[in-house]
Write a structure and sequence with these properties.
The structure holds 2 protein chains of 2 kinds. Chain A is of the alpha/beta class. Helix content of chain A is 27%, strand content 26%.
């Protein structure tokens, strides 16, 4: 498959099986520049497997995944991707790091690892402001609530102004009000501006209310539910 | 005590190790694999016993055993993440079993004894050079890969999606842990070196705020514990490994109280 290097995310004919059986069966999905896609599905539908394929942890048994035209297992330009992982929310509880350090770590991706961006302090401040947590900068990340940690990780994903956001369950373990606030944050600059985004969520109701394109993962297949 | 060359060598080697051990230990603790240190300590003892039996440098025996064990545990952790704790338990049992059997070899028990809890008189010039070279290599590794290690401690998927070659860095950290545990066995002792991978970091987390500060404070905690422990060993004629760990536990208790009193615990 030939995928344009301008296409943030292209999943084509992807299948994946664990020993227990097939989880993804010929799934295809293209996320265009600036487009926001909400991927919904029940527990066990294969959402986490898809995240593993997008980050390169897993290799598809058939089909291909391309991020800006590159195979994630060999990709170098990860600085173009902002990622919020479900696992990090829990592990932040045991990290002896400040909120500022966690957000700053988003600037050291891909080829920027040894050459951090100029003006990193301003970038960290801007990301914290954008997620409405500027007052938490010096706080220990482990002392925060689940909702605050999610916002810190979203700020981390946004800090380098990525071209693609991949957000894995950004509202997991949040109470309804915090989940509403998180979706409001995600909706701020949709419609033709800002990074493309793939938001993986079990929260179908809020996903529908977001006005974004909805794709449902069920029985190993992807089905487009609604367009933005 | 500093008028004796053996004590100068023991102190110098101990201080160098004290800087390197918490750096490696932090990656084990924060990636929730603290028990890997215990398994490595058992393997280092098996390697020491194997070296004594084979008539080669026992530290070299420990080094080989620890590197093989650490890479094996890392491989299982990567491919069977849900069984990582079982792999650590199996390696730990294998190390203890081998150490027990090999220590029964004729005339071996006496030599092995000095590696259980360390010895301040056994550090030769060659041991000091080996400790310095390996510790410098470990510290350089930790500095070069500091961003990668930080991300891997947060979450390996997050690290992957930042371009970190998780398998490579994980293997490098496993080798570093194996190597540093093996060279520390001469001074600190195989049975207690794993404590020095964990305790200084736990102590630092009680009072320091921020990742870098926590690493710096953990190195300070380790240095203070090693110097005071070796002094206790010299003046009280006790095994250095036991004295170092007990001092470190004392420092940890004080830091925990300070952290609670000041409300500055990083948790």
């Amino acid at each position: 498959m030939t995928t344009s290097t301008n296409t943030p995310l292209a999943i084509e004919g992807v299948s994946f099986a664990y020993e227990q059986g097939l989880v993804l069966d010929g799934c295809s999905l293209v996320v265009a520049p600036h487009e926001r896609v909400m991927l919904t599905g029940e527990n066990g539908a294969g959402k986490s497997t898809l995240v593993g394929l997008v980050t390169g942890r897993l290799r598809p048994s058939a089909g291909s995944v391309r991020i800006f035209g590159a195979d994630p297992r060999h990709m170098r330009s990860w600085e173009r991707v902002g990622f919020l992982s479900q696992g990090a929310t829990a592990s932040l509880g045991g990290m002896p790091a400040t909120v500022g350090e966690v957000v700053r770590s988003g600037l050291y991706a891909g080829s920027r690892r040894l050459a951090p961006m100029r003006g990193w302090r301003e970038r960290v401040d801007a990301a914290l402001e954008r997620c409405d947590i500027a007052d938490l900068r010096g706080r220990a990340a482990g002392s925060l609530s689940g909702g605050q940690r999610q916002r810190v990780l979203l700020a981390r994903a946004l800090v380098a102004d990525p071209d693609l956001l991949v957000l894995d369950e950004p509202t997991a373990a949040l109470d309804p009000r915090a989940a509403d606030e998180m979706f409001a944050l995600l909706a701020v600059d949709r419609a033709g501006e800002g990074p493309a985004a793939l938001v993986i969520t079990h929260d179908a109701e809020r996903a529908h209310q977001s006005g974004c394109r909805i794709v449902r993962l069920e029985g190993g297949h992807m089905e487009e539910v609604s367009r933005a | 005590m500093l008028e004796y060359a053996f004590m100068q060598r023991a102190l110098l080697a101990g201080i160098i190790l004290a800087v390197a051990l918490p750096l490696v230990g932090s990656s084990l603790v924060l990636r929730r694999t603290s028990m890997m240190g215990d398994a490595l300590s058992h393997c280092s003892l098996a390697g020491v016993a194997g070296g004594l039996v084979a008539g080669v440098n026992p530290v070299l025996g420990a080094l080989v055993a620890c590197v093989i064990a650490s890479l094996g545990m890392e491989a299982v952790r990567r491919h069977l993440p849900h069984h990582a704790d079982v792999a650590i338990a199996v390696v730990s049992a294998a190390g203890a079993g081998l150490a027990g059997v090999l220590s029964s070899a004729k005339g071996n028990a006496g030599g092995l004894d000095s590696f259980l809890f360390g010895s301040i008189v056994a550090v030769s010039e060659e041991d000091l050079a080996l400790v310095a070279a390996i510790s410098v290599a470990v510290v350089v590794l930790a500095l070069v890969f500091r961003h990668e290690i930080f991300l891997m401690c947060m979450d390996e998927d997050l690290a992957r999606a930042s371009g970190v070659r998780v398998t490579l860095v994980g293997a490098a950290l496993a080798v570093a842990a194996g190597v540093i545990v093996s060279v520390a066995s001469r001074i600190i002792g195989s049975l207690v070196v794993s404590s020095m991978l964990v305790l200084p970091l736990v102590g630092a987390m009680q009072v320091a705020r921020g990742y870098r500060r926590t690493l710096v404070v953990s190195a300070l905690v380790a240095v203070v514990s090693v110097v005071a422990g070796l002094a206790c060993s010299y003046y009280a004629a006790v095994k250095p490994g036991g004295a170092i760990v007990l001092v470190c536990l004392g420092v940890l208790a004080v830091l925990a109280l300070v952290g609670v009193a000041s409300g500055r615990s990083s948790r």
